[in-house]
Design brief:
This protein has about 850 residues and is an all-beta fold. It has 2 domains: about 110 residues, Immunoglobulin-like (Sandwich), CATH 2.60.40.1120; about 700 residues, Maltoporin, Chain A. About 5% of the residues lie in helices and about 55% in strands. It contains 4 helices and 50 strands. It is globular and about 100 Å long.
């Protein structure tokens, strides 16, 4: 609960910069402008505060305004003489201050609000968590007002994640955290796991307008986090504002222009936010909805057969009820129906070869927070539904050739999965003895289900001349119905040994029923402030982490079996047909911290992670952080042909991977919300290539190659990233993003699709990637209620060649040629704030 309190306070305090202008005409002293700047004790502006100005006594002729997103509260036509200003905002102590308004054309007043000793939901609890510098599990935190206006115009949480060092979006659109796929990381909303039970992936994440903070933890040594081996993305949603507030973003569609002629609508992505109180200081609501119709062009294909088409609704509704000063209830509903035509469209897979995807996902979360004495009890109930259908463009067989594929995608499926869970945590009062102890205990119980069926059609591999080299048929396949029960217990102690030294001690016990495994995960971390100035913090830690095995793994035995036949140049059969059975192999986990029955399928993926970090605050406006982390994973679930018995395709738990990262991050922060983030990461990601997610996910790979241990596709040795916000004259705001990195690695293959040489080696990489984007915006106050925001965005302003694809098949006449590129382009749009 104290971690939640800290997040809430940080997010509330960082929304900030208050500049207000009020033009007075006429009466009294002739004041034309009064600017009120409301800031917190750290000197950062506070948005959403209610500011009232009145003559003495303050109850007479009082006028109030709410500070804007930039923190502006405007007052007009004020009388000269003694005045009283008051400011109030949930989470801060109310302030009242007297001042004298003299005769001059304009005036400015600065008010400082002190934080109140309450959490975001107004539950009275004492400070039961150490300060951020005392934590051995630092976070990379993204806040709504820092990211929502960037050139990329992020629409949901997943769109913001590449702003964090160590996280990139791969060429196929998937988020890679520490070089690994989404299924190896945890994604939580208000402490509830919201990943897909079938695949372990994130799906369509929460709309950005409903987000308060996004915390990314690469090394979360706190035992409260589980079910991951890579990282954690923890999202806290926003509570409704204290006064009615609405936003309409991107209200009009973008049109497609070709050769100076309009060719229909390119996309329409209106976003609507409405929030406010239903009962004064009791019941708050927030609704954030985005409707999207988009046609994403693929530059390697000719128009008009180069667009992937998406239609979706991404909605979040939240109600917060303050029962008492120590008791709050929060209900959240997230719904994401969507449909995509021509998924993963590219040069080698034109429209007929691509699949379609449709989903209906619903997540409901109910949280109850109760202050008991000086501690807090939090209860969270979650009910989720994930329905997905993957189809093809027709019923033809699929044909793979060195120069490109044709026919129809070979796999179709339908599944319905769900999760019902209960989480109970207790943060008791601070204990004193050999320092201060901030304890937290918790338990979680979850039921998961997954049922459906997978159908697959033949795959034909042809030479450049059209000769049949290999045919893959499929036999059998039946409906599956898999269920699972999970139980977890954890205990942790954030121990402030002295004012300069703190330790995180804890452990977690997890049991996954379908995997027949019981896992023990100890974790520890240390945070040391060596100097009295408090400007330097040294951190380090070590922990064992276990991942949940998604239920698609346990549907493997119900999937169709492959029948492989190889042909000679004269059309005769060389090998086959070979009917390969789908079998479960050994768990592959040899750890005294895991207990299971050692039967096939008793998987327990695990990671041992340690890190060391130094953070230095040079001034109030510049902070530098340098660190190194090392993660070694074992027991990962991989798919591979059984070399001892070539009539089997085996799913086993012996996969390994290593991720190492050195990072240096600087944050510059000026007044009025101006800031710049700079980071450089040097990393290495290696492991076994046949991770189960490539074959048992939404879009299975048509080929199963020999499993190799080498660099992973998400390996990026060098990456430099910079983004932020700068205020310019005349009320202009500039939001730049710049990224320079190595190109993604790729694999060279032969005519049969088998690897040539070492795949994803340092010699097989795309050219270096460089992109410089920027967005310039300006707000125009139409009247006291409506604000019009106009903006212009530019992308790839340096017009750098960033290749989109490569001819990687050795039998392709254009073998080794990189092609495709997004040239410099511009976009103009506007939003309405009211």
């Amino acid at each position: 609960m104290r971690m939640r309190q800290r997040v809430g306070r940080a997010a509330t305090g960082l929304v900030l910069c208050l500049t207000a202008a009020g033009v007075a005409q006429g009466q009294g002293c002739g004041t034309k402008q009064l600017r009120v700047l409301v800031q917190d004790t750290a000197g950062k502006p506070v948005t959403g505060a209610t500011v009232a100005i009145g003559t003495e006594p303050a109850t007479k002729q009082a006028t109030s305004h709410v500070t804007s997103e930039q923190g502006i509260a405007e007052f007009r036509n004020l009388a000269c003489g003694a005045q009283t200003a008051s400011a109030a905002k949930t989470g801060f102590q109310d302030l009242r201050e007297s001042f004298d308004l003299s005769e001059k054309s304009s005036a400015e007043l600065r008010l400082t609000l002190a934080e109140a000793p309450v959490v975001r939901d107004s539950v009275e609890v004492h400070d039961t968590t150490p300060t951020m510098e005392q934590s051995a599990s630092p976070t990379q935190q993204l806040k709504l007002d820092e990211v929502k206006n960037l050139p990329s115009r992020p629409a949901n949480v997943a769109d913001t994640l590449p702003l964090v060092p160590g996280i990139v979006r791969s060429a196929d659109g998937e988020i890679k955290i520490d070089g690994e796929g989404e299924h190896r990381s945890a994604f939580t909303v208000n402490s509830a796991d919201v990943t897909d039970p079938a695949t372990g992936k994130f799906g369509l994440t929460v709309p950005i307008d409903g987000v308060e903070t996004v915390d990314v933890l690469n090394t979360p040594f706190l035992a409260q986090y589980g079910n991951f081996t890579a990282g954690v993305v923890a999202v806290e949603t926003r509570r409704g504002s204290d006064s009615l507030h609405a936003e309409l973003n991107d209200p009009f569609p973008d049109f497609r222009w070709r050769s100076w002629h309009m060719r229909g609508i390119r996309d329409a992505t209106p976003r609507f936010l409405f929030s406010g109180p239903l009962l004064h200081q009791r019941l708050y609501f927030l609704t954030a909805v985005q409707y999207e119709v988009s046609k994403t062009p693929e530059r390697t294909l000719p128009f008009p057969f180069n667009e992937s088409k998406r239609e979706s609704i991404n909605g979040l509704a939240q109600f917060d009820y303050v029962v008492s000063a120590k008791h709050t209830l929060t209900g959240t509903l997230h719904f994401t129906p969507q449909h995509i035509n021509f998924v993963n469209l590219d040069y080698f897979n034109p429209e007929p070869v691509t699949p379609n995807y449709a989903q209906r996902n619903y997540v409901a979360i109910l949280s109850d927070r109760l202050g008991v004495g000086e501690g807090t009890i939090e209860s969270t109930f979650t009910a989720q539904r994930f329905d997905a259908t993957i189809g093809s463009q027709g019923t033809q067989e699929m044909f793979l050739t060195p120069a490109g594929n044709y026919g129809n995608y070979f796999s179709t499926q339908h599944r319905e999965s769900g999760r019902t869970g209960w989480i109970e945590t207790w943060s008791p009062a601070r204990l004193v003895g050999f320092g201060s102890h901030y304890l937290k205990f918790g338990t979680a119980a979850t039921l998961l289900t997954n049922n459906g069926q997978l159908w697959e059609r033949p795959i034909n591999i042809l030479s450049t001349t059209g000769q049949l080299l290999r045919r893959i048929d499929f036999l059998g396949g039946r409906p599956y119905d898999v269920s699972d029960s999970e139980v977890a217990l954890f205990a942790q102690d954030q121990w402030s040994i002295t004012s300069r030294l703190a330790a995180n001690l804890g452990g977690r016990i997890e049991k996954q029923g379908v995997a027949h495994s019981l896992r023990l995960a100890p974790r520890t971390g240390l945070s040391w402030t060596p100097f009295s100035s408090g400007r330097t913090v040294i951190r380090g830690g070590y922990g064992i982490f276990y991942d949940r095995v998604p239920l698609s793994v346990y549907a493997f035995g119900s999937n169709p079996q492959r029948v492989v036949t190889d042909y000679a140049t004269d059309g005769s059969v060389i090998v086959g047909p070979i009917d390969t059975l789908n079998v479960f192999g050994a768990p592959g986990t040899n750890s005294i911290l895991v207990h299971n029955q050692r039967v096939p399928g008793s998987f327990a993926p695990q990671s041992a992670i340690w890190n060391a970090q130094v953070e230095q605050r040079f001034s109030n406006w510049f902070r530098l952080r340098a660190g190194y982390s090392n993660s070694r994973s074992a027991g990962l679930v991989v798919v591979e042909p059984d070399e001892a018995a070539n009539d089997q395709t085996m799913l086993r738990g012996g996969g390994r991977s290593i991720y190492r990262q050195a990072e240096i991050t600087g944050r510059f922060e000026w007044k009025h919300g101006q800031q710049m983030f700079l980071s450089y990461t040097r990393s290495r990601a290696e492991g076994q290539l046949n991770d189960f997610s490539g074959f048992l996910g939404n879009f299975p790979s048509p080929l199963i190659r020999t499993d190799l241990y080498t660099n992973l596709p998400g390996d990026l040795p060098n990456r430099f990233l910079a983004w932020g916000r700068v205020n310019l004259p005349w009320g202009l705001q500039l939001m730049p993003i710049m990224e320079f990195r190595d190109g993604f690695a790729y694999a060279r293959v032969n005519a049969l699709g088998d690897y040539v040489g070492t795949p994803f080696s340092r010699y097989n990489r795309f050219p270096d990637f460089f992109s410089a984007d920027g967005r310039m915006l300006k707000d125009f106050k139409v009247n006291p209620k409506y604000t019009l925001r106009l903006s212009v965005s530019g992308f790839n302003l340096s017009n750098h060649f960033n290749a989109l694809s490569v001819h990687a098949n050795s039998a392709d006449p254009q073998y080794g040629v990189f092609f495709g590129n997004y040239k410099v382009r511009y976009r103009a749009d506007f939003d309405i704030l009211f």
